[in-house]
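Help needed: design a sequence for this.
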């Protein structure tokens, strides 16, 4: 299938949705052409920084109609080239969607946006006496959205599990819908497709299952939700 190239009309449309300050066009694109994967480089035609679900939804709808490829990106610390715009088109950076919407210590759940940095999330919920275990070595810069997409883990995975063990629900734009809890415990684990590029799913907010330190960890963590 042939994809469309981005032209001035498309740019003007994106300006209407996002404002010029949330767009990189013609310059500043280089940074978004690579992640930490060795020797791979693909230049996007435009980089868009949505700040809310409606903006993501509008961009996805427009690009879908015009056959413009979209590649989601976040902190670009990935080691498998997933955030690289192989087909050009839009690099959709979720970096500016980085808010913590709610932390609920009573049910061990939080609602957050996907561009939130892993370590910032960990530090914030500790203030509520909670603990979010997935700790990739890149935690100071990688985002929870990127962690979900690549199912990241770190040293604590041995004891507590990896990202997919903690994600309860995600909201996807483009399709804007919520996945519901399943009865099957395995199905509850929201392992996200690594290639969101092709699936056009954009995780915008989700409930992360948290645990408090001291909880017996031989039990599946999903039991605490
Ligand atoms: C020094 C260093 C140490 C690392 N240590 C570890 C480690 O210990 N464990 C580990 O597992 N990994 C590690 N990594 C790899 C990397 O940090 C993780 O895979 C991390 O999850 C990537 O997150 P990111 O925000 O940088 O995502 P990006 O690299 O920007 O994107 C990664 C993937 O996620 C997709 N994506 C990002 N945001 C969204 C979204 N909102 N919706 C849909 N798709 C999205 C992108 O399209 C891409 O496919 C390390 C990397 C470095 C450079």
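Sure. Designed sequence:
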């Amino acid at each position: 299938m042939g994809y469309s190239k981005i032209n001035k009309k498309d740019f003007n449309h994106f300006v209407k949705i996002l404002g010029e300050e949330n767009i990189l066009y013609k310059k500043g694109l280089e940074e978004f052409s690579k992640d930490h994967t060795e020797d791979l480089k693909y230049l996007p035609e435009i980089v868009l920084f949505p700040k809310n679900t409606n903006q993501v939804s509008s961009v996805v709808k427009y690009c879908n109609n015009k056959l413009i490829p979209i590649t989601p990106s976040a902190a670009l610390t990935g080691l498998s080239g997933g955030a690289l715009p192989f087909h050009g088109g839009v690099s959709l950076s979720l970096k500016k969607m980085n808010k913590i919407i709610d932390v609920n210590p009573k049910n061990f759940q939080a609602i957050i946006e996907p561009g939130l940095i892993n370590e910032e999330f960990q530090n914030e919920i500790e203030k509520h006496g909670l603990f979010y275990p997935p700790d990739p070595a890149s935690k100071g810069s990688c985002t929870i959205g990127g962690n979900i997409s690549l199912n990241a883990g770190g040293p604590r995975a041995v004891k507590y599990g990896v990202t997919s063990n903690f994600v309860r629900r995600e909201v996807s734009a483009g399709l804007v819908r919520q996945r519901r809890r399943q009865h099957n415990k395995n199905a509850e684990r929201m392992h996200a497709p690594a290639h969101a590029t092709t699936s056009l799913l954009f995780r915008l907010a989700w409930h992360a299952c948290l645990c408090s330190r001291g909880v017996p960890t031989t039990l599946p963590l999903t039991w605490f939700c």
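The pocket of flavin-adenine dinucleotide is lined by residues 35-36, 71-79, 82-83, 94, 114, 136-138, 142-143, 145-147, 149-150, 152-154, 196-197, 202-203 (CB under 6 Å).
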